[in-house]
Amino acid sequence: MRNVILTCAVTGNLTRPDQTPYLPISPKQIAEACLGAAEAGAAVVHIHVRYPDGSPSMEVAHYGEVVERIREQNRSLIINLTTGQGGRFVPDAEDPKIAAPETQLLPPLERIQHVLELKPEICTLDLNTMNSGDMIVMNTRPNTRIMAEAMLAAGVKPEIEIFNGGDMVLANEHVANLGIASPVMYSFVMGVKYSWPAMLETIQLGKSMLPENALWTAFGIGRHEFPVVAQSVLMGGHIRVGMEDNLFIEKGVLAKSNAELCEKACRIVRDLGYEIASAETARDMLKL
User: Fold this and answer.
1) Cα 150 from Cα 92, distance rounded (Å)
2) Is there a cis peptide before residue 183, judged by omega within 30 degrees of 0?
């Protein structure tokens, strides 16, 4: 039976503490959420960090504490750090070529400073330029190439996040030009407003554009989370759940932990006749 890799995205940067009392915020809470997800079946944990008030952080010290706490108790769990922050632009209302105060654009190497210092096994590489609420996410081809080259030089494997079909074109260009070791990791992000819809046809399109020897995951946001778990597995992919993407274990019922979301995903996978990959098995599959 095929092994399916489960990634847990434990907190993200957009989920708010007022939406759920169970959201991990401090480095200790985030590390504990990662360890709990691992016990529930996750082979990979995708990590953002927060300030004490719950707002998004990019502090290397916050990432370092989370990684250290995880490694003290679990050496096999695969750590995947985000590099998505620092890419949001808000145009000034009077002059759209000027950045409004809410803009959070940073030079590419500043966005991945924590990756270069901590050297996790994996980090995300976002290629999307798109509407995000009333902001614009901006990831230009030159900047994403700078980030990818620096990740590879640090020995960190990129997990390429795909929000639209054009992202696949750019991803495949980078893969062809940068020599990313096989298997190249792709993630289809589905159900974010103004990006790929959470539809079976989205997975079919994404799969049709993959290079040879790619490993891919599809995951859904909000109410799409668990339906996409089943769709991704049945289409030959891997899975992701977690409070970054969805807060509910079922309609109207908040999940009390990331582990609870992982347990439900694992039940779905096993009920469909597949196996959940251990962290050690996932390392072999990803050639880490």
Assistant:
1) 32
2) yes
Q: How far is CA 276 from CA 46, 245, 257, in A?
A: 17, 20, 19
Total domain count for the chain? 1
Quick one: which H or E segment has residue 94? none
The CATH number of the domain where 115 resides is what?
3.20.20.70
Using alpha carbons, select from 115, 125, 184, 127 the residue that is nearest to residue 155. 115
Considering the entire predicted model, what is its pTM? 0.96
Q: What is the DSSP string of 200-212?
A: HHHHHHHHHTPPT
Compute the distance between CA of residue 202 and CA of residue 217 in angstroms, rounded to an integer: 12
pLDDT tens for 79-135 read 999 999 999 999 999 999 999 999 999 999 999 999 999 999 999 999 999 998 888
Cα 264 from Cα 131, distance rounded (Å): 32
Distance between CA 216 and CA 206 in Å, rounded?
9
Distance between CA atoms of residues 191 and 125, nearest Å: 19
Q: Which domain holds residue 238?
A: 3-286
